[in-house]
Design goal:
The chain has about 525 residues and is α+β, with helices and mostly antiparallel strands. About 40% of the residues lie in helices and about 25% in strands.
Length: about 525
């Protein structure tokens, strides 16, 4: 068999040729029954016979193919690449194969040269599908290796049989502080303290696998090059790595998170203890305050009623013998005891509000306000006060709490219109900021208040007017605020040149209230 001309001259022997199609008019041969391409060569590499499949695979169009050098009908780049190597191989071996890519046809052929008594036989097989699949597999392998090496999580792979580490990515090299070459000399047990790696191997043993792939995830310790132990979240599973049955290990350092969680749990426990202590303190304080208000409402009310009763008897039976100053003193005693009794009642209401039920129902505002106004008129029959209120006002609220708040608001309006010859009070129900909110408004044309002190209005015992002009204890609006808060609402006030308006916002349930 001839070899390529070292000077690059003629193309003698087994060397390249042009891409040619099969010639027309060729006589049929029994070799045409064979599915592979068959080319028979003499000792000098010249074609003696070939079948139709060989002509098709080689894309031959040259006439009179027998007698031609084989490499003349092979694509030139394939001939240039493989002719010399083939000739050299066949000098020492009876068989030689290679797979070549025909770029023009984008196909892959397997060339198998075999000696026989008359020369050589060349078998041509189209291996394009297999080569393309292998290319995809190679691309996938390269892509997987790229993902492995570039992954920000520390990852390494060890042989399932020997536990020898096969591969390690850059993140693992940085995490453990072990150079790549040194890393690849280790067994996987070197990274686990106190033999913990044996437990991992046991969990990944073949008997525990489910299917071809078995993954586990667990918290464990890892040992760095300096001996430092770190807590990691480790995930691993069976893979095939370059023909090895191997196990991929991926880990994340959770030491700081674990310490933070432990610190958070400790802080939560401390806060729970502090909350329990504060709840106990609040419970004790509430109990003491309840006891105090009970004492006020019983022990203090009885002597107050006695003082007021004796003062009334004194005014009734001895008014004739008392001078004007004496009768004035008696009236002052009665007014003081009434004011003190009212203060006690309001304090009890203010303290007991948080313990009240807060059961919601549809409340008729007109009926409640009418009864409260009638009671105010009975105590002050000489007053001329116009009350404006539309029919059909209704609100979803706790009825007893709402009556308490309305009593305070109407009493407040009645009191601050007392200097007016003709006072008026208006009760209205307005839409809120949201569809499920209603706003109760009580307005009057009374004295009003200084807007600069608006923030103090709803604070207990805060008075913006002299008690000589407008008697009171400063608890009414504080009670109103508590009632609104018990409903999850809010309060505010507005004032103008004459009069004031007070507002209570009430969230409504799904049924809502009449607008």
């Amino acid at each position: 068999m001839k070899t390529p001309d070292p000077k690059g001259g003629g193309r003698g022997g087994i060397q390249g040729g042009s891409q040619l199609a099969a010639p027309a008019g060729r006589a049929w041969s029994p070799w045409d029954l064979i599915s592979d391409g068959i080319v028979l060569l003499d000792e000098k590499g010249r074609i003696t016979e070939l079948n139709a499949e060989a002509i098709r695979l080689l894309h031959c169009m040259l006439p009179a193919l027998p007698g031609r050098d084989f490499w003349e009908i092979v694509p030139e780049d394939i001939a240039r690449r493989y002719q010399g190597a083939t000739g050299k191989a066949l000098t020492s071996s009876a068989r030689h194969s290679f797979v070549a890519h025909d770029e023009f046809a984008d196909s892959w052929l397997e060339y198998t040269f075999s000696r026989h008594p008359a020369g050589y036989a060349v078998v041509l097989k189209d291996v394009t599908p297999g080569q393309k699949l292998q290319g995809l597999l190679d691309d996938s392998l390269r892509y997987n290796q790229l993902i492995f090496h570039a992954n920000p999580n520390a990852m390494w792979i060890f042989d399932a049989a020997s536990s020898r580490i096969l591969a390690v990515n850059e993140a693992a090299v940085a995490f453990y502080g072990i150079g790549r070459k040194a890393f690849l000399t280790l067994g996987m047990g070197a990274l686990f303290p106190d033999g913990e790696g044996a437990a991992l191997l046991s969990a990944l043993a073949p008997g525990s696998e489910t299917g071809d792939v078995h993954f586990i995830s667990q918290l464990c310790k890892q040992k760095k090059s300096d001996g430092q132990l770190v807590l990691v979240e480790l995930a691993c599973g069976h893979i095939n790595w370059s023909g090895h049955k191997a196990i991929l290990v991926s880990l994340a350092d959770v030491t700081e998170r674990h310490l933070a969680d432990r610190s958070l749990r400790r802080e939560n426990a401390e806060q729970e203890q502090e909350l329990t202590r504060l709840q106990d303190t609040l419970k004790n304080t509430t109990r003491d305050l309840t006891a105090f208000t009970d004492a006020l409402s019983s022990d203090l009310q009885r002597p107050l009623h006695a003082v007021n009763g004796f003062a009334a008897m004194l005014a009734e039976k001895y008014s004739a013998v008392l001078d004007e100053s004496g009768r004035h003193y008696v009236n002052r005693i009665q007014a003081g005891t009434r004011q003190l009794a009212k203060l006690v009642d309001d304090l009890r209401v203010l303290v007991q509000l948080p313990q009240l039920s807060g059961n919601l129902e549809r409340v008729d505002l007109v009926a409640i306000c009418g009864a409260l106004i009638d009671d105010l008129r009975r105590h002050n029959p000489g007053r001329v006060v116009t009350v404006e209120m539309e029919a059909g006002l209704a609100l979803m609220a706790d009825k007893s709490l709402l009556i308490t708040a309305l009593a305070c608001l109407l009493d407040n309006a009645w009191k601050f219109t007392s200097k007016k010859a003709e006072g008026w009070i208006r009760v209205d129900l307005l839409p809120g900021k949201t569809p499920d909110e209603r706003i109760l408004q009580v307005s009057d044309n009374g004295t009003g208040f200084d807007a600069a002190y608006r923030a103090k209005l709803f604070t207990a015992f805060q008075r913006l007017h002299s008690s000589a002009d407008f008697p009171g204890n400063g608890l009414g609006l504080a009670i109103v605020k508590r009632v609104a808060e018990r409903h999850g609402g809010r309060v505010w006030a507005e004032t103008g040149q004459a009069g004031a308006s007070f507002f209570m916002a009430f969230p409504q349930d799904g049924a809502g209230a009449a607008p």
